[in-house]
Amino acid sequence: MSQNVTLNEFPVEARVGREKQVFDENNVRQVAGTIAVDPKTKKVLVVSSTKYDDVWVLPKGGWESDETKEQSAERETYEEGGVRGEVKGFIDSFLHYGYNDEIKAKIWFYEFEVKEILDNWPEKEIRKRRWCTFKEAKHLLRFKPVLQKALLASSFAQETDPA
């Protein structure tokens, strides 16, 4: 890791509760997430879902009123995946729909360069992490089309063979 880089420090425990959650004018929850890539291995981070066994997701979570969307994305990546680094750019925002076609959330996705992989992190006991090639990540995200769409929109997809 470069001596000049200052990484955000986050609490040892994950944030809980939704009292600081940001909602838009239509009362849609705002969420921030990342396509986190380790520059050494060129692999992307996926984490296990806490709701469904054998389902993999990208690190993401509620944007809170005391942080920017980028800070929220970095915090969620640390809490869920145990990595620290920095947002390198905005990918796009995506609407996440529930079962009744209602909008559940608007997810703001960022490209994230991994600088440090931690042995311990806030959600280590409830999540697994996995480092994947583009093709593996695309397959693992098949149950989460909105996350797969974010992966496909990232420069990670364009830098690899999408076959």
TrEMBL record:
Q: Is Metal-binding tagged as a keyword?
A: yes
Q: Does the keyword Magnesium apply?
A: yes
Q: Which GO terms describe its cellular component?
A: cytoplasm; nucleus
Locate the Nudix hydrolase domain: which residues? 27-153
Q: Which UniProt keywords apply?
A: Hydrolase, Magnesium, Metal-binding
- Domain of life here? Eukaryota
Cofactor(s) in the UniProt record: Mg(2+)
MF terms per GO, please?
A: metal ion binding; pyrophosphatase activity
Identify the coding gene: PARPA_10518.1 scaffold 40771
Query: What species is this protein from?
Result: Parasitella parasitica
Protein name per UniProt = Nudix hydrolase domain-containing protein
